[in-house]
Fold each of these.
Amino acid sequence: MAKIALTGATGFIGRHIARLLSARKTAVRVLARDPSRITLPDGAVEVVQGSLTDDRALAALVAGADTVIHCAGSVRGATLEQFNRVNADGTARLADIAGTEGCKRFLLLSSLAAREPQLSPYAASKRAGEEAVASAAGTMTWAAFRPPAVYGPGDKEMLPLFQLMARGIAPVFGSDKARFSLIYAPDLAAAIVAWSLYEAPPPIGIFELDDGKKDGYSWDDITRVVTALTGRPIRMLRIPPSLLGIPAAINWLLGRYLNRSPMLTPGKIRELRHPDWVCRTSPDLDALGWRPQHTLAEGLAATPGWQTHTG
């Protein structure tokens, strides 16, 4: 039986992966700074307490593992140094130790933002993490998955947007002609598990994957889906850059000089205003037998919490 080492098991996507692996009776060992946050039944996974800065914990995590799934990452911060601590340096450390311990496969959960590293420190750090894995892989089979915006049960980042839309407002941060891809979290988790447990050597490299919607979505597409689910018309509200620019700049200063980790920064605004976040999917993943199972309408219908504000 394959043994999987998993980071990020207490996070949004990592929890879906851990549940799916546990349901398949796969032997799973997870890294957790706070084991009490593991939401699986007792005994479902083996837990190693520690973080990406702890070489001893990382060695214990990957010892005897066939595959490492690295989902832990930082999405909040102001400077490249803050993001790199986890997304680049932590990834490099884990990949080096996994190679030394003889792991056969290494899968990094990256981000579509890594395609545009010039936009923000976050994007640059995710690209650096990919490069670190490629450099350290050695004889390991490796891949980096670049999902677009991910939503679904347990999400905290996309949920406020859908809650606003359920109330009849769609905030548009960039061009109303922008296009972007989406993916439902359980579908992304299924792709990661399919790659990890594939009996033949899985495809190597960097892969973008989405929910199968060709050419992605426009804001009109999203509002039509939400209106169909809620029965409520939606008005698109354009957010001028100046409205977010000042608080973003203040956040950046606080993050830089007080070592805080804000979400809204100038880099994040550049990400939000980028016109093309459509995935460029590869047929190489077809060999895994994975296909996204949920349209946006189906995924949103199965996501709790966002329609509670329709009143």
Amino acid sequence: MMNNKLHACAILGLMGVLVGAPTANAQLKPPVDAEIRSYAKADGVAGLLTVAGSETMKGLSHRWESKLRELYPNLTIQVQGIGSETGPPALLEGKAQIAAMSRQMTPQEIEAFTKRFGYEPTEVPVAGDALAVFVHRDNPIKGISLQELDAIFCKERRRGGAEDLTTWSQLGLSGDEWNAAFIKLLGRNHASGSATFFREHVCRNGELKENMTKEPGSASVVVGIKKDRYAVGFSGIGYRTSSVKPIPLAAEKGKPFIEPTFETTINGSYPLRRHLYLYVNKAPKSVTPAVMEFVKFAVSQEGQQVVVQEGFFPLPTAELNRHFAAWTQPLQAATAPHPIPARD
């Protein structure tokens, strides 16, 4: 249930030429369109709000929380970023008012929610992301296909690979060091939306290999790769550092290798592109001011500036302004589908 395509129209008003100086993680910051609606302080926003779910989005949620806390001293926002898999249960059990997720809710999760409340959870895309496959900065590999990635990480090789890939020499790396080097696998634990996304779109719903080290967080995957020259792992592009580099990926063997950038995420050419989401328990025509302002801030000019600062990508201006307007007016359940990346 992956996003078909991040709007091609995102290029308009958002892209042009990438601008800005290189960040600490050696990426260029994408532009944030000045036409995205600006946030204005509301009256009477107070109380307690809990945001639960994605560990990938934890830093992003904390940054939004910090900005809102400056505006609303009587508002307390708790951010619980354990993993996307914890978001739907927290929403279902009333332990959170917002679920932050690095994947879409499954039909089963939506069905369980609807059965309990009589309406669907409200889905709001808030950022673009590329799930990157990182290696140590000294690794000379130029790129790999999804079929090869499947043979590296997945038990069943559902993409048709002839054999398990367990050494770097099988991927074309030569020289005494790499000929003898086994591939060390790093990934995310079962609570992670990134792991679910990877299994669905790389393993084709197969299982990850048991010898993969399951890290509790996105940053710890990158730290593990920094410490091991022979490691490879997957994590959100926002967690890139100067010690690691993302491998360009090809959707099929023989196709061009595509780097995970703002441009390739927006135009749909990078194979492991995705949205980041907020899901809200919103009864028809009823939502608390705290929930409304958190979501509205996330899709505002100021909220998208935070998205870029955290290493993720802003969404198309038209889409953001549509959500901003919807959360400014009396709301209806947001069940209409939005464009999502096509499956390979």
Amino acid sequence: MPSQRTPLKLAVAGLGAIGLTVARRVDAGELAGIQLSAVAARDHAKARRAMAEFRAPAPLSTLAGLAEAADIILECLPPSEFAAVAEPAIARGRLFVPLSVGALLDHWHLVERAKATGARILVPTGALLGLDAVRAAAEGNISEVRMVTRKPPPSLAGAPLLTERNISLEGLKAPLQVFQGSAREAIAGFPANVNVAVALSLAGIGPDRTRVEIWADPSVTRNTHSIVVTSDSSDLNMTIQNLPSLENPKTGRITALSALAALRRLTAELVVGT
């Protein structure tokens, strides 16, 4: 008889476009070996309505309380709330899955803290591609990583760097480069838009050496990322075009699916990819 493993308990921080999609599918039993044990949301009434049709609506918790309720904490929050869920999760030795990976750069001490507590930090691929190949190339020598992001202007609206520089994207008729610099600088200026740049940098040569361009492009309807990697093992040239989420155009629909795929690997009998 096959052994019955105890299900891993999952807590979801944030029930927006990504968190609700993941919570709904876990509740439906689509991820074998994982059960939804708690959620945290700013609007409790809205969260209860969102979970009304769940088979087993999860208890609502504070952000800090999620670490007490689960083995895995999935973070789907605005970057400003990152530490409130990340700090307790790492302190309790949990598996922490951040989607606001850019915020991790501002809380890098958590990586060192995880060594002491036994916690692990698992960064999903998100709305990107080729991280397996980039991680493999990084075992050798990577000399260059460049990423060019093109997004419909409305998805960049409200970015701190645009506000700071008084750049308006209203009525834009032609592509406009709004940023060029390192991945670390990119996420500081566009904290809700380019977490993919940080994920790419962590897989490769780091946030200070990874070069990023961001374009507001009225001719595109999809969030597009083009990546060039030069290394001593292979040269990579990759492009992905993501459909924006209907609920939140700043993120791609594939981001929630990436989180689900990352969680599925934790209990799968067969895992494909580096």
Amino acid sequence: MLAGLFAQAAPQRFEVASIKPNPAIDATESVTIEPNGGIRMTGYRVINLILGAYDLRQIQMRDQIIGGPSWIFTDRFDIVAKAEGALTFNAQGRNPAEAVAMMKSLLEDRFAARVHTETRMMRAFAMSTVSRDGKLGPKVSATTADCPKYGNGESAPSVVQTADRWCGFRHVPGRVDGRYVTMGEIASYFAANAAVRRPIEDRTRLNGRYDFSVEYAEGADADAGNFFTAFREQLGLKFDTVRTQVPVLVIDHVERPTPD
């Protein structure tokens, strides 16, 4: 009786799952949610499966990943899995929490993945608003985006992502646009930029979602000052160099997947 009261809920798992190597070195990582609990992932590297399944959005740079064999950063896999029953989503219709939990179990069962996080002192950038009152620049505003959704318990997108209806980040030479993004997501996205190449800690204290567009010089003739000036003048955001405790992901163990 008491053992039952204190027993932990069993981990969520896919009913069936197939994992196969994808030999294309330049495959685009993509995921499709199918009717009746199906999920199809193409061209995924194991490191990105780990980051997504363990919700490690603060791991922004390769320097924040300790250990693990080199193939988890290069080899790609296709995964076809089926949950028992339809997958459900959050209120925004964008996050299938059940599938994320099942992917964590899949990594542990089929890749023998064991990971943990800790913190280490590292050089980083602190991103904050230029204005003390938190006012942002002319090219960022509270979001007006109508994002693609999976709806209330639906398994297929109820809004088609088109050239005019999308959310996330888009990068063309010299410009990055963002829709329906948080300040934390902006920090994570730009950490790997050639002008930055350090973890970025969000210190804006802004909790909303935003649309933005920023233009800056890129290429061999560009300098870091141009990037930081663009952020200051267009978005009202600044970057200060700091030494701070930064989260790191430690890969304790991982193996190539067991055969189907």
